[in-house]
Specification:
single chain, 182 residues, mainly beta, elongated
Length: 182
Amino acid sequence: MRLRLPPRRAALALAGLLGLAGIPPAAADPVVLPTAVIGVESSYDSNVYNGRGPDYVTRITPRIALHVRDPRVDLRLGYDLGLWFYAVGRAKNSVNQLARAALAVRLTRRLTLKIADEAVWAHDPGFLLRAGVVAPQTSIVDNIADAEISYQALRRLALAASYSYRHTQFGAPPPGAAPLFD
């Protein structure tokens, strides 16, 4: 004897059996958004490294990123590469890298945990797109890590605690430049 159920009834029966077995219902599928971009830029710099003279600079900047999100998790990953080429040779060609990762997880309806990290390794500090970074033309390694936990106590009241860590290390300054302090 063979039992045949219409697809809708079969799905409802299976969902009921899984519910009795203690298996939670499936969550919404995550949204995955990959990104790949490449930029090519060429410009004239009349004063390379503040005193080496004029040169043409070509920058090739590929970027890849991944954003994964669902109702409880938001994950963002990114990597930028900066290849800088000097036509006349007033400066050495450089490789600059920037990696980012951020994760936000809703542990409960009111409790959220966020962690993030950003690391930069750059031979040419012009790659750094941060206000307030002033350094002679030297390499730099920079790492910023953040963590936060927040609790939505009331509709208009959120409590949060966060921690940030930053480590910056400069390479040797060019000859004749003032020394740097880490």
